[in-house]
Amino acid sequence: MKKIRLTLLISFFLLTSNFSFAQHSFETIIRGLENAEREAILRGDTASLYQLMSHKIVIQNPENTIVGFRQVIDRIRAGKINYASFERHIEKVSFFKNTAVVMGKEILVPQGSTQNAEKTITRRFTNIWMKEKGTWKLTARQATIISIN
Prior knowledge:
- The radius of gyration is 19 Å and the shape is globular.
- Strands 2-1-6-5-4-3 form a six-stranded mixed sheet.
- With 149 residues, the protein is an alpha+beta fold.
- The chain is 39% helix and 42% strand.
- The longest helix is centred in the N-terminal third of the chain and has 42 residues, at 2-43.
- The protein has one domain (2-148): Nuclear Transport Factor 2, Chain: A (Roll).
- The chain is built from three helices and six strands, in the order H-H-E-E-H-E-E-E-E.
- The protein starts with a helix and ends with a strand.
């Protein structure tokens, strides 16, 4: 009986260790993708965004408008998404099968013709990443302004 309990305990430990390790490595990947997306937005790098975002993406933006991939690219090219600085502080990454949910806070300073140019904007965000053909893609996003200074 003790051997069976010990075997079950070891099996449970090995299974949960593998799951924990896999989740940790997926989290590292998602955090890297979050940073790459943030950097692409900061640089106005639409070529990188083509790789990072699903072309079916749905975004509830801070201006309280729902937009898609084409509108994001058009707004970047028109200078309406243009930041002097952009920080993202991830507070939580959760996984549900082939979906990752990322939540946290962003602090940015718009510039040029962007709304609230030269002010410091703090907002809460939720990003949803899903696997498309084996590759993680940003599929949905919501951002809400919580302060403007």
